[in-house]
Specification:
This protein is of the alpha+beta class. The chain has 2 domains: 8-123, Phosphorylase Kinase, domain 1; 134-375, Aminoglycoside 3'-phosphotransferase, Chain: A, domain 2 (Alpha-Beta Complex). It contains 12 helices and 10 strands. The strands form 3 sheets. A 5-stranded antiparallel beta sheet has the order 1-2-3-5-4, with helices on one face. Strands 6-8-9 form a 3-stranded antiparallel beta sheet. A two-stranded antiparallel ribbon has the order 7-10. Helix 3 packs parallel to helix 8 (283-294), helix 4 runs parallel beside helix 10 and helix 7 (254-265) runs antiparallel to helix 8 (283-294). The protein binds adenosine-5'-diphosphate, 2-acetamido-2-deoxy-1-O-phosphono-alpha-D-glucopyranose (GN1) and magnesium ion. Magnesium ion is lined by residues 33, 229-230, 245.
């Protein structure tokens, strides 16, 4: 998908395809996601300001946006059955609300064939790219567990797989191998150390998939992109308000969701930090995540509980492999703002994996203590 900035007139034409009252007065690029183009749209509703969230869906990555939006509608409507409470005057902040178009669809198309969706703008809450307050980690992990709980009884049919094999680490390694062999941008020589890092861990990368295939770890409905900036925390209380970025909600492993919380929230540095001495995994944040997640994730079986620590390593490894692959392919998947950013992102992920390997025993002890605390007296 070509990266283009949309001017105000074009955005206003998109907004006009939704039955919204009032005047569009401003629009600005919003958030720091790597995939979609997000805009905050300000409206003037007869003198009252009102915001909406408008997103261009990245249709190079999500090949079937209509099916994707079908998933999101089903998910949010199901969440709503769990949330709606006439006494809760703040319920509409607790899950995303999809805007339906003038034609009654959960998306609109523009003249260039782009796909757009709109959401109610969730006010008085924000996302964090990095956190330095462990209570935020606790609340975020808890919110993602609540989300998994809400969807545990989503009626059939199965959700569409918006990106097949999204977290299948061995398949991600195969894609990396192809990118190395092709070396389309002549970058492979420069990343020999990273390739060697992957080579040393090929075997263990398949561990969760093997346990899934053996029937020990169940398939659940999971979020699959539980990055810390995909949960909105309340400005006043710091509590989890709403889980967002639902493009990848589909059948998956709960462990991948926990693992990606560890990767993103327990990072000691920014995801693309260039000074690797700052990168690593913070065990204090890991503990807060484990406490928050297990406070709500009573559905986990023994095998899942046993793999909580490993899940952080394997998902961090997987995302690092994806950043490395994208670097070799010429930075076509993840949005970048400077040369070498995907390689820096990869290196931070691999440094975090090293850090988790070194702290493995301590992290296992944390999980054991948290599990003990959650056992019935
Ligand atoms: P991406 O897939 O590119 O990561 P997201 O759906 O995560 O896109 O949105 C990007 C950012 O926009 C989020 O991190 C969040 O800060 C903000 N955002 C998304 N949805 C809403 C919403 N409904 N209300 C307010 N802010 C939102
Ligand atoms: C992307 O959309 P965003 O920025 O929340 C990516 C995730 C990666 C993440 C790495 C659909 O997430 O899988 O873990 O970047 N989303 C997709 O920061 O590929
Ligand atoms: Mg996001």
């Amino acid at each position: 998908m070509k990266r283009v900035e949309f001017d105000f007139a074009r955005l206003r034409a998109v907004v006009r395809q939704f039955p919204l009252l009032g005047d569009v007065v401003a629009a600005e690029r919003y958030g720091s996601g790597h995939i979609n183009d997000t805009y905050k749209v300000a409206m003037n509703l007869a003198g009252t300001p009102l915001n909406y969230l408008l997103q261009r869906i990245n249709h190079s990555i999500f090949k079937n946006p209509a099916q994707l939006m079908e998933n999101i509608l089903r998910v949010t409507e199901h969440q709503w059955t769990k949330i709606a409470d006439p006494d809760d005057l703040d319920a509409s902040r607790r899950c995303l609300t999809v805007l339906m178009s003038n034609e009654g669809l959960p998306y609109v198309r523009d003249e260039d064939g782009n796909w757009w969706r709109g959401y109610l703008f969730i006010e008085k809450a924000r996302t964090w790219d990095q956190i330095d307050d462990n209570s935020f980690a606790y609340e975020a992990a808890r919110a993602f567990a609540v989300f998994q709980n809400q969807l545990a009884d989503l009626p059939l049919p199965r959700l569409h797989e918006t990106i097949p094999d999204f977290h299948h680490t061995p398949k991600r390694i195969e894609t990396l191998d192809r990118a190395i062999a092709e070396d389309a941008h002549g970058r492979a020589a420069e990343v020999q150390a990273e390739i060697e890092f992957v080579n040393q861990r090929r075997e263990e990368c398949g561990r969760l998939i093997r346990r899934f295939e053996a029937g020990e770890i169940p398939e659940r409905i999971t979020h699959n992109d539980t990055k810390i900036n995909n949960v909105m925390l309340d400005d006043a209380s710091g509590k989890g308000v709403c889980v967002i970025d639902l493009d990848t909600v589909m059948p998956g492993l709960a462990l991948y969701d926990f693992g990606d919380m560890v990767r993103s929230a327990a990072a000691a540095s920014a995801e693309d930090e260039q000074d690797l001495s700052l990168a690593g995994t913070r065990i204090d944040v890991f503990e807060a995540l484990a406490r928050g997640y297990l406070s709500e994730a009573g559905f986990l079986n023994e095998a899942e509980l046993d793999e909580l620590v490993f899940s952080g390593r394997v998902i961090t490894m997987t995302i690092g492999i994806r950043f490395l692959t994208d670097y070799l392919c010429g930075d076509v998947y993840f949005r970048t703002h400077r040369a070498g950013q995907n390689l820096d992102r990869c290196r931070v992920q691999f440094q975090m994996v090293r850090s988790m390997e070194q702290q493995s025993d301590a992290m296992e002890a944390v999980v054991a203590a948290v599990r003990k605390g959650h056992r019935a007296p």
